[in-house]
Amino acid sequence: MTFLETVRTAFTAVMARKMRSALTMLGILIGIASVMLTVGLGQGAQQQITSQINKLGSNLIIVNSGANSSLTVSNAAGAAAANNRTRFTTPLTLNDAAALANPTADPDILLVAPVTTTTATAAYGSNSESTSVVGTTPAWADVTARTMTSGRFFTTSESNAGSMVAVIGSTTATNLFGTGTVIGNSVTISGQSFTVIGILNSVGTTLTGNGDDQIVIPAGTYAQRFSTSSNMNTVSTILLEAKDKDSLSAALQEATNTMYVMHNVTPAAPDFTVSSQQALVNTIGSLTTILTALLSGIAAISLLVGGIGVMNIMLVSVTERIREIGLRKALGARPSIIMLQFLVEASMLGLMGGALGIGLGVVAGSILSKAINYPVIISFAATSLALAVSLFIGIVAGVYPAWRAAKLAPIDALRNE
Amino acid sequence: MTAIVELSEVHKTYKSGTITFEALRGISVSVAEGEYIAITGPSGSGKSTLMNILGCLDTPTEGSYLLGGEDVSSMTETDLALVRNKRIGFVFQQFNLLRSMTAQRNVELPLMYAGVHATERHALAREALERVGLGDRTHHRPGELSGGQQQRACIARALVTNPDIILADEPTGNLDSVSTHDVLSLLHELHDQGRTIVLITHEHEVALEAQRQVQILDGLLTEGMRAA
């Protein structure tokens, strides 16, 4: 008996009991579909987050003030020490930014953009809105990979001079100016008048907030007009761009070393954090992976239940078909052939359920994706894995029933009424 | 004539807990090639046990069984399956045709287990069905055939592998008189063509169809047949 004939025999047996086979497959179907969906959602989320982080700019390094390490405080003295450390954390300044831009000490850092942010009310005529105001240098546009849809970004001389010019996001432009002329008009920010010289391209919502609703002004202007710190040169974040992907880790190291010198701190007690965008991608990537694995694990429980269903039905099937098994044995079927026949039958239930489950997963995924406006990615790898898993479940569920069938004595099987 | 079946001093003992039951108590019989023999006996006589051993569905506890010169008395189930496939053609009281398959596919079943190629298999099965007069019923399922036709399909299945013996266990037990006559004359024809047939029955008239009768009673065999 060839394998193809065994498959044909199994298919005939599955089809001979359509309702029962369909219900058995349903268990596997639901399990595979839910795993496909959770994995699809997880991969979608990962892609979404990665693309959002990438919107921040390529080869980006972020310098923040304050140590990132969490302090475990077990007593009052420890708490006091921790408080002291926090109190004396040196803020980032424009001097730090200038030092990081030094090509001799930091050859792998291409661009430096100090960033300070506040929230202010912007108004034009009778329109006004609360928006975020960013003070930075011209390098910001390159570091964060922003382009202009119209007008231009401010220049270094405008930045240094503290010119009253502003570049605004597309949403801000619509909110304040509607469909009217934007470039050349004046916008009032916290009572101070700025000339709008450019509109930024639309990037949508990024991890740092709505990239389309913000006003970007020169760092010098920001320091003079908006700084709330005792030191006008204080900035909240310094964004760096490494020369290329390969020099990213070198740039990270150079930035860290420069900051040690600038802030006069040791690696044991840093008062700043240097992190790369890649590290952020990796962290969030591993987070979504863990979350996806967890959810898939829950979904996989239904697969287990489905597998038990297959096993149960196969056991019933063996009992019901005792005479058939006896006859096949009498006619010369070796125990191994009988074993294979029932194994193939169980795998067929698993595989068919799996294939239908993938179908359902794909359909439900595309519906869900449209409904919640979020990508659901059903990858080829996930699909093949799902098929393999359903086949595996079928085989595992089939082993015991098939073994029972194979070891039946032909006389007992034939005698059974 | 060479003996195709050679049973000597065959015992079969069943154990169930502390109770042992000796179903066969030393049976010796030989069946020559081309012989048509009937084994009769009332129920409980050990008839079914003997039939199971003759059919290689079970092995004797003691004694030897040579089938076509091959000792089959202590073979493993896997080897016995091969022997059954090659040497024995079964005809059952209940026909035992698979309901989901056509007559043709049912007849092909033993050839499938023998590993015969599909084309040859189809031809052999059709030939066997024509031989038993079911040439026009090859694509009917058992449910669409009468009892007599089903039994003839069963005989075709027994013939198709060209076995050493045909073992018919109460072949007419489920048939009306017309079909009984039909099946018995078919067995006669097969015997006339040189087939070795072992017929197991409890009916005297049926047993008388055979060349030679043996009777089993309380696990022992006697030649001839006692009057009812």
Give an account of the 3D structure.
The complex is a heterodimer of chains A (417) and B (228). Chain A has 417 residues and is of the alpha+beta class. Chain A folds into 2 domains: 3-52 and 283-415, no CATH class; 90-270, no CATH class. Chain A has helices at 3-16, 18-55, 76-87, 94-100, 139-143, 156-161, 170-177, 219-225, 248-263, 277-320, 322-330, 335-372, 380-407, 410-415, and strands at residues 60-65, 92-93, 109-124, 127-136, 148-151, 165-168, 186-189, 192-200, 205-206, 209-210, 214-218, 234-235, 237-242, 272-276. In chain A, strand 3 (109-124) and strand 4 (127-136) form a beta hairpin. In chain A, helix 1 (3-16) crosses helix 12. Chain A is elongated, with a radius of gyration of 33 Å. The two termini of chain A are 27 Å apart. The model of chain A is unreliable at 69-85 (pLDDT under 50). With 228 residues, chain B is α/β, with parallel strands linked by helices. Chain B has a single domain, classed as P-loop containing nucleotide triphosphate hydrolases (Rossmann fold, 3-Layer(aba) Sandwich). Helix content of chain B is 34%, strand content 29%. Chain B is built from 7 helices and 10 strands. Chain B has helices at 47-54, 77-87, 103-114, 118-131, 147-159, 177-192, 204-207, and strands at residues 3-16, 19-32, 36-40, 62-67, 70-71, 88-91, 165-169, 196-201, 212-217, 220-223. In chain B, the strands form 2 sheets. Chain B has a 6-stranded mixed β-sheet with strand order 6-7-8-3-9-10, sandwiched between helices. In chain B, strands 2-1-4-5 form a 4-stranded antiparallel β-sheet, with helices on one face. In chain B, helix 3 (103-114) packs across helix 4. The longest helix of chain B has 16 residues, at 177-192. The A-B interface holds A 1-2, 5, 12-13, 16, 323-324, 326-337, 409-411, 414 and B 52, 55, 57-58, 77-78, 81-82, 84-86, 90, 92, 96, 98, 100-101, 109-110, 112-115, 157.
